[in-house]
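User: Run a structure prediction on this.
Assistant: Running it now.
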Amino acid sequence: MTGYPLKKIILWLAGLFLLMFGSRLAYGYLNPGKALDGQIVNIAVGSGNEEDYSVSRKNYASEKIKQSGPAPEGPSGSGQTQKYEKVASLRSQSSRFSEDESQLKTAVKNFGAIIQFEQNTGNAGYRNLHLIIGVQPEKFDSFYLNMQDIGKIISKSVTKTDKTNEYLQLNAKRISLEKTRNSLLELKNRGGNIDEYIGLENRILEIEEQLQGLGVQLGDYDEENEFCTVRFSLYEGEEVHIGLAQRLKVAFEWTVKFYTLLMLGLCFALGAAFLGLRIIGAIRGRDQNLRN
């Protein structure tokens, strides 16, 4: 009869060990985000000058704004058209770098987009590819969705910034400079002393240079040059798959560690309880002797 309780305790302890082992093994399968299984490692993220890459190109587009009331007259009517900058940023990991690079450039060609910036860095196994792609506004959304099928996306975002006021300010500045230039040309034709003539000529040249710079800036807003921007970064790495043997090893080591800690905790609790009972018994025995 004495061996039966001992056997039962051993079975209970063994069952507890197996339960902890099975739970840890299942946890490894059900929580891939906590493990390396399916993850891509050895990625040289951050190599290359990504700061220059992020600001090396600006694209602008426009769209008509629907108005409920009558259209305003005069120059303010230009407010019916919104000028904006729309930028999508995607960062992707790939264990098939060459194939994904080829797929990316094929998609650019199929959508009629333009690669405006390209940067390749790193050796085989640690390659990075950074692209700035100009996409026609009407194809932007479908192109953005298509890019998400390349590699394993780790981050994505879309930002749209209104540029209407900047565009109107540039136009207003251009008109003002043109008026000033025309006024100076009229003064120049009236004649005068040589110093005044030279001063007027220099001032006209300065205004012409400013107008040329404004022409370049306004050219970015021209409807013929309208694009939205997609920044795509592709990082090479190796996809890791954890085998059953490795999972069993990790689960066993974890179970031994925490099972041992649990048993030590139980032993400490039982020892403390036993000691407490002995102390209580001793106190009661002393009290009983005092009464007698």
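The chain has a mean pLDDT of 80.
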